[in-house]
């Protein structure tokens, strides 16, 4: 059993996708994260990191501040997202990406998800995105459920 | 809208729960992670970290090794899990836990999930676990989907 046997089609967003549309895609299709395509490069945004799309940094860093922001203000943050795109919220730092090739083994996929803390691994063959393996698909396979 | 309005019942495992049973719970109920109860203390294991339950550390740390382990050996790793419990695989280090109280705001929940990279926040009131808020429940609320 290799990645090619576990992958499934997965929606892809671009740097120009509006943040709100990306968040709606996550919510409506119950996705564990986003695959962001930038020319030939892929970035994976796990769902929890995609939350950064919707929360201003100064609130992210200060739990006490998040507590005092009331409901009306929370709605304002969401409205303010309207004009922003995925480009503006992608992490800047370089780090290991959960991307591998179709020959990856089940154990390799599990180790990659655990190391990168991503519930989603993109499967790429010669620069072409074939699809993604999700944590749920992997667990189902490992446990035979 | 506060955490108390978003929380739902969530299954809880203990330190004595067999690893295999915990992994099956994740897979079968399509959970984003596990809540582990240890007397009065809670630990949250996001799904990607729960994968560490099933993958030996030396393979986790060495992608090349994971590649060469063949299918037959992968099955052996899973069989070897039979006698292990959640206690043996919980992270040792202390770190911020995705646990808050029922008064937490939507923004506070989002910031907590993003900081701790956990798609799951446990809601506790005076030491009693009330339930959990998942990333999906939070996104649905934030976007009104």
Radius of gyration of chain A in whole Å, from Cα?
17 Å
Tally of extended strands of chain A?
A: 6
Biggest interface: chains and residue counts? A-B, 52 and 52 residues
CATH class of chain A: Alpha Beta
Which residues of chain A form runs of ≥5 with pLDDT under 50? none
Description:
The structure is a homodimer of 145-residue chains. Chain A has helices spanning 3-6, 19-28, 47-50, 57-60, 63-68, 71-80, 106-116, 135-143; strands spanning 12-14, 33-38, 41-46, 99-100, 120-125, 128-134. The first copy, chain A, is of the alpha/beta class and 145 residues long. Chain A has one domain: CBS-domain, CATH 3.10.580.10. Chain A has a 3-stranded mixed β-sheet with strand order 1-2-3. A 3-stranded mixed β-sheet of chain A has the order 4-5-6. The model of chain A has no long low-confidence stretch (mean pLDDT 84). Chains A and B meet through α2, α3, α5, α6 and α7 of A and α2, α3, α5, α6 and α7 of B.
């Amino acid at each position: 059993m290799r990645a090619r046997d576990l992958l499934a089609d997965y929606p892809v967003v671009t740097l120009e996708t509006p943040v709100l549309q990306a968040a709606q895609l996550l919510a409506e299709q119950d996705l564990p994260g986003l695959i962001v395509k930038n020319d030939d490069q892929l970035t994976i945004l796990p769902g929890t990191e995609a939350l950064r799309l919707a929360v201003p940094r100064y609130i992210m860093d200060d739990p006490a501040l998040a507590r005092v922001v009331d409901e009306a203000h929370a709605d304002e943050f969401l409205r303010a997202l309207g004009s922003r795109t995925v480009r503006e919220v992608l992490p800047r730092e370089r780090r290991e990406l959960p991307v591998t090739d179709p020959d990856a083994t089940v154990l390799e996929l599990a180790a990659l998800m655990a190391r990168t803390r991503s519930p989603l691994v993109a499967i790429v063959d010669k620069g072409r995105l074939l699809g993604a393996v999700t944590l749920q698909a992997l667990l189902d396979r490992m446990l035979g459920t």
